[in-house]
Amino acid sequence: MTMSIDEKLGVDKIIVDEENAHIIIDKQYSDDAEKRKLIKICPAGLYKMEEDGGGNLTFDYIGCLECGACRAISLGKVVSGWNHPAGAMGVEYRMG
Q1: Residue 35's Cα: distance from chain center in Å?
Q2: Burial of residue 50 (number of CB atoms within 10 Å: 0-12, 13-18, 19+)
Q3: Does the model's pTM come out above 0.70?
Q4: How, if at all, do strands 57-59 and 79-82 pair?
Q5: pLDDT over 90 for what percent of the chain?
Q6: Where does residue 21 fall: left (phi above 0), alpha (psi -120 to 50 degrees), or beta otherwise?
Q7: How does residue 16 score in pLDDT terms, banded at 50, 70 and 90?
Q8: In this model, does residue 68 exceed pLDDT 90?
């Protein structure tokens, strides 16, 4: 039986460190083009623009796949901090 990506991700386990976000975004960064890059690249769809028209970027690290794509594309601009979650926290892949 072949599994879809969504089915494979559905069996992964994510233990969230609710006290320490492992990704920090610069809420003062104003370049909407750079923000849209994060929205497009995140495979978990965790970056979103608020619909208030103000260009505010929201991010919820719960569900992060720790792929590092946001860190790589941001180059320290919008994503001002990126670290792996503390030991025993974060994503645990169960289906290669």
Answers
A1: 12
A2: exposed
A3: yes
A4: unpaired
A5: 40
A6: beta
A7: confident
A8: yes
Kindly report the CATH number that applies to the domain delimited by 5-92: 3.30.70.20
Show Cβ contacts of residue 28 under 8 Å, excluding neighbours closer than 6 positions.
none
Please, what's the largest Cα pairwise distance for the chain? 47
pLDDT in tens, 39-55: 999 998 999 998 876 77
The one-letter amino acid at 94: R
- Residue 35 above 80 pLDDT? yes
Amino acid in position 20:
N
| Tokens standing for residue 25 | 């975004």
Cβ atoms within 10 A of the Cβ of 37, count? 18
Cα Rg of the chain (Å, integer): 14
The ranges assigned to domains in the chain are 5-92
